[in-house]
Amino acid sequence: MGDTVEQMYIALISVHGLIRADNLELGRDADTGGQTLYVLELAQALSELPNVSQVDLVTRRINDSHVDADYAEPIEVINEKFRIVRIDAGPEEYIYKEQLWEYLDGFADNLADFFRKQDRIPDLIHSHYADAGLVGSHVANLLGIPLVHTGHSLGRVKRRRLLASGLSTEQIESLYNMTRRIEAEEITLATAERVITSTHQEIEEQYEIYDHYQPDQMRVIPPGTNIKQFKPPEGNELETDLFRKLTHQLVEPNKPIILALSRPDKRKNIAVLIEAYGESESLQQLANLVIIAGNRDDIDDLEAGAQEVFHELLVAIDRYDLYGKVAMPKHHKREQVPLMYRIAAASGGVFVNPALTEPFGLTLIEAAASGVPIIATEDGGPRDIIGNCHNGILIDPLESSTITDALLKLLTDNKLWDDYSSKGLEGVAKCYSWRAHAKRYIELVTPLAQRAELLQRQPLERTSHFYAEQAIFTDLDLNLIGDDVSLHKLINLIRENRKTTKFAIATGRRLDVALRMMKKHQIPEPDILITSSGTEIYYAPKLTPDTSWAQHIDYHWMPHKVRQLLDDYPGLQKQPKSEQSRFKLSYYIDPEQVDIEDIKRLLHQEEQSVHVQLAFGQYLDILPIRASKGMALRYVADHWQIPLEHIFVAGGSGADEDMMRGNTLAAVVANRHNEELSQLIDTDRIYFADKPFAAGILESLEHYQFFHQAKTKKTS
């Protein structure tokens, strides 16, 4: 056994500065957000525990006339056991974290000197974010102190989001020092005894793709919630100005409130909540619906994705004639959010999070701490929250009926509502308050500080590059789906090779429909999801939409003109609204009446720059000229810097043809629609499998020795 530590001295490191005890400047820039508040509240909670003797929150000292003088103070004493320590490193002025990398070695040396000059060095260092991880690794190795790390966000994941926003690899390197950041994260993982995350999903979908990932290193401790700020109703909530502002559009404002609070983001799936409400007369009689979806002055001034969400919401409100029953306020302030939850609770209402995926679910904890029962997506963090608090109902975000049923259950059963409300308050205090977080944290780190529980590292298999070397692209219908036994084998094979191989699905279906099919057949979320016949691209782990791709394909696209030409065309019938999307017009086609070449000629004669494709002999899609599955594949390959020669493509219909032509390694799985691809039979680099569905994909991967080639490239 190691040293006995009765009262622990903990040093938390958050390098980039602008941290002080009061009046946090949250939102000043990208560096002063949730991580800043997280670290400050963690330090405060740890200092209140009897078995902690000292907490230092270490950051960079800033002496700059453009920021408050508070940040120039070397030491800020918060209480008798908690202080903020500011270390000199680099220029005195405030600079963004991406510019700090050159000065981190100096920061580490100065911090080590600071600790040496004291009577006692910390028993434990806890670094927050990649730059602090690098500093913490240096100091921990120098002084022989165990290191714990929390990443908050990871470089590999952020790179995906930046690519999706339209930045090139070169721009990302120039602006964000991404290679250096990922190197720092690898060094941190190689040094840290424990890594603390908010959810299991974070481990499985983010940390696992790092070379120095160690499963035994990871621990899940959800972040705490400030239960002094988020608290149950005090009695006057329905008499406040905010209540009147939220409900002034409602005909019967005193009904219970169904509250939703999120960004105007398609992934938040707010429209399905309006659908559930609109299709139930009983719900409309029982309650009002209040949707808080960010702030707006003019919808037309918002970015395209938010415009699309608001258009969908307003159309749904109009379709179900919900005027006077639904409120969607234009503005709110951050400090009003706790009162919004209390208003919902005081009204006897419910909080709903219908997101397609929710990695954690902080709003659910805030609602629970305010006494509001919750209804939430079964994907991700809400499963853990409701499992711990027993204060709500999980729903399938792709099936509006599950939301309707859950709302009716809660709004018609007062005893159940009271039970969930009280259990939510108890559960948050027990599992999700900062005090609960701090107590679990101390239980985790005490054996490390005592040198009694050190990590036994497993052998590593390092990849030769920071990013995947190859990729698998496959359609969904009649490719992945159709043989669940072979599908399970294929998924396991992809998982075994996930560090070197990206997994992508390219489908003609809309995002929500594709997700529903994937869920039904237990297909995990791919790294890349191309939907609506190549017009939309999403990236794991949060289904981040590629906004740059949307801007790229919105070129000479005039869907209203195409509709005028085709909606009454003999032999064509519009597919349901669920199959239409912003960049895809879909029709059923009668091949006895319609010649595709005639359709193309008509559209080109009318100067419509479009891409026309036929799938499975009966589905006609009209897309922007720059959009198709093949175009989307090449766009992704270019952004991810994966050579087309290292990409395997599996298809089974005419809509997949342009994915398979060219330099990719392609395969046509056996199915009754192979005649649509029969012209490719003699094409180089296209293999026609004997087996159908996932079995045909496995056969084709073996034909190309795809994973064997990856191992050969890796060791050569």
Automatic annotation (TrEMBL):
The reaction(s) this protein catalyses: beta-D-fructose 6-phosphate + UDP-alpha-D-glucose = sucrose 6(F)-phosphate + UDP + H(+)
Residue stretches making up the Sucrose phosphatase-like domain: 470-705
Cross-referenced CDD domains: GT4_sucrose_synthase (cd03800)
Entries under InterPro entries matching the protein: Glyco_trans_1, HAD-like_sf, HAD-SF_hydro_IIB, HAD_sf, SPP-like_dom, SPS, Sucrose_P_synth_Pase-like_dom, Sucrose_synth_GT-B1
Domain Sucrose synthase first GT-B per the UniProt entry, residue ranges: 9-214
UniProt domain Glycosyl transferase family: residue ranges: 252-423
Annotated source species: Methylophaga sulfidovorans
Lineage: superkingdom: Bacteria
Keywords: Glycosyltransferase, Transferase
A molecular function (GO) term: phosphatase activity
The name this protein goes by in its record: sucrose-phosphate synthase
Pfam family, one: Glycos_transf_1
UniProt record similarity statement: Belongs to the glycosyltransferase 1 family.
Entry EC no(s): 2.4.1.14
Coiled-coil ranges from the UniProt annotation: none
